[in-house]
Design a protein that fits this description.
By secondary structure, the chain is mostly beta strands. It contains two helices and 13 strands; from the N terminus they run E-H-H-E-E-E-E-E-E-E-E-E-E-E-E. The strands form three sheets. It has a five-stranded antiparallel β-sheet, with no helix packed on it. Strands 2-3-11-5-9 form a five-stranded antiparallel β-sheet, with helices on one face. Strands 8-6-10 form a three-stranded antiparallel β-sheet, with no helix packed on it. The longest helix has 12 residues. The protein is globular, with a radius of gyration of 16 Å. The N and C termini lie far apart (41 Å).
């Protein structure tokens, strides 16, 4: 059984060939995120805003892009992917929840997909834990706490070429827009 139905887009192109394995791999990015998240001085230096997420760019390993991010209670990313970048994140303070899809989506040529019923995954990441992921990983991350900030470290390689934002209604995932680096830097 296919994890994704593309009946509306039968000619959607296949995923492009994988890039050579240059730069840091997902395991190295996770090691960086975990060790950076364990630095109490760095974590304490992040300004926290009670209304919105805050972030500071960091120097990641091997030319990767890295961020220290503060999450006020109840904030999250919404469904998105990091295109051709592999990545990792680690929780430094508080607790984050990740919902993800265990499905390989076409990288281009679609606006809406119906997901199979068994593709949803969920995990909670308390302080000191992290998660690595491969290219085209679709997920949402959020701080479910109603009272406490969370802080996390994220790293991506190659540096983010774009972020695709999605909406989701039941099993239907819809591509809403694409952000470029100028939108978040």
């Amino acid at each position: 059984m296919s994890a994704v139905s593309t009946t509306l887009f039968p000619h959607a192109p296949a995923r492009p060939p994988a890039r050579p394995l240059d730069g840091p791999g997902a395991a190295e990015l996770l090691d960086f995120a975990l060790s950076t998240a364990a630095d109490p001085e760095l974590v304490a230096a992040l300004p926290l805003d009670p209304e919105g997420r805050t972030w500071v760019r960091l120097d990641g390993p091997g030319g990767s892009e890295a961020w220290l991010i503060g999450w006020p209670p109840g904030t999250g990313t919404g469904w998105h992917d990091h295109a051709e970048s592999r990545g990792a994140f680690a929780t430094a303070a508080g607790r984050l929840t990740e919902h993800s899809l265990a499905a390989r989506l076409p990288s281009e040529g679609w606006q809406s997909l119906e997901l199979a019923p068994d593709v949803d995954r969920s995990r909670t990441l308390p302080a000191g834990t992290g998660r690595a992921f491969r290219e085209f990983h679709v997920h949402e991350v959020f701080n479910e706490s109603t009272t406490e900030h969370a802080v996390s470290v994220h790293a991506y390689y190659p540096p983010l070429p774009l972020i695709r934002r999605y909406s989701r209604t039941g099993p239907v995932l819809r591509l809403e827009h694409v952000e470029r680096p100028a939108d978040w830097q």
